[in-house]
Amino acid sequence: MKGTESRQFVAEQTPYEHFAFPNLLSEIGEIERVADIYAPDNKEEFIETFQRIASRTKIEMLTENEWSKLENTDSYNILTGDWVTIIGHVQHYNTTTNADRDWQELRNAFESGKAIDAPIILKTKSGLHLISGNTRLMMCRAFSIRPKVLIIDMSSSF
Q: Global pTM?
């Protein structure tokens, strides 16, 4: 759910230098889910176009404006240090999807400076849609980190 009230991200935000280009193969299920939404009659072409554009796109800093308009995430509403909300989101996700996400492992990775796959965002004619990386974005918000993301611009096609 997008925030409706105005929030200011911490001005002294820290860019996290350890974001890596995401492994698209490990996110193929999420990419297929988004193909079902934006191109239900043309999934194969959508995925091929997505992969082609991704192969020549670099990760970049997510702007505050982009983050505030990002669909399919609650991350913008996370406050600095709000681990309780993050834990609740992860537990809800694990319960409803039978997943086994470990928020503490991800938190430890951030704290120790390990490489973390950049979240993936789809840009369409209608806006920005988070494909993968909701927990990573929530962590960034809690740590007051400006994330790097991979924005796949398909606005000329979809």
A: 0.89
